[in-house]
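Researcher: Next entry: Rhodanese domain-containing protein (Didymodactylos carnosus).
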Amino acid sequence: MYSDQPSINPKFDDSDQYELVAVATRKLVIKAPKSIDIENVYSANSTLKFDEIIDVRTPGEYEVDHLPNAVNLPVLTNEQRHFVGIKYNQNKFEGKHHGAMLITKNISNILEYQLFNDSNEQQLPSTKKKYLIYCQRGGQRSISLAFILTQIGYEEIFILQNGYSSYRKYVQKMISELSKQLKWRIIGTLTGCGKTDLLNYMEQHCQIQTLDLGNRRNSQRSV
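Model: Predicted structure:
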């Protein structure tokens, strides 16, 4: 974005020359994406609702876990992230250089095939929609996409501070706090006596919340 007034007042009779100088001498104003912490995203008192949550991590990271309702638009593939990591450990500048080359190519594909639809202009996303973008922790991958979207003209681009790592810590914190409000009853008996069947019956017919740790861990020790 540029300021409205040129920094000098060139004196040219030719209008084309005047326009060229005026554009070249305007002060450049660079917009930055907004930043938000995880507490403000999931706080009960928060009035901020996102139209879309974008996870720019690799498909492998996304598959392990992700924010609820997040879509995966990776700026690096699993293989690319592994390659960049090796290069970075050998030489930080070389790693960042390769990372930038790959990320910019992938963001181009995201813009062309996933955010934009060239065959139907009516499907272009609204610049007023609120987007939350996050990566794993450091912010390099999320800021790459968020910065470009902001410069294009998207007005409500937010980056999650400390990325997925902050969400994981938030979930652990909430589990610790909410679990104190629950009344726990542990059913512990010998293997094969029907604990899972009992828990299923209690959940279906008694409206009791259950957690079958033994079944979740493939009948290994749960407590």
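Model: Note for the record: The domain at 34-171 is CATH 3.40.250.10 (Oxidized Rhodanese; domain 1).
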